[in-house]
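Re-run requested by the PI after the first attempt was lost when the workstation crashed. Everything re-entered from the original request form. Ligand of interest: fe (ii) ion.
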Amino acid sequence: MTELLDLYLCETCGNIIQVMHSSYGELVCCNKPMKKLIPQTITQEESLKEKHVPVFNGSTIQVGSVIHPMNKEHHIEFIQIYSDDKKHTQTVFLSPEDTPKITSENNNYNHAVEYCNLHGLWLGDK
Ligand SMILES: [Fe+2]
């Protein structure tokens, strides 16, 4: 069973998709089951954690307490913030020349996920 806003990766072609309506079917791409992306919150490598976990600071959410690098080889592809009930979301898709931040005046956003092209999905809470 999928859940609203779950993210799935095709390990063959690299497609990443998001669930907008949950159901029981298996998600398949390139003739293989897609891999559910589980956000990381803890890692033994503290240096990885501090550059990936989204940090809330007023209306700005930044990727990393030490801001994540942004270059062609290693960058944040997107940041998504969402409310507790998942009824409201805001997403920004980033390019390597962008700063890995998202801004919102909506105080209902208590959770943020970001996707690093090398280190995967990370979750941070307000
Ligand atoms: Fe990274």
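Saved to the shared folder this time. The longest helix spans residues 46-52.
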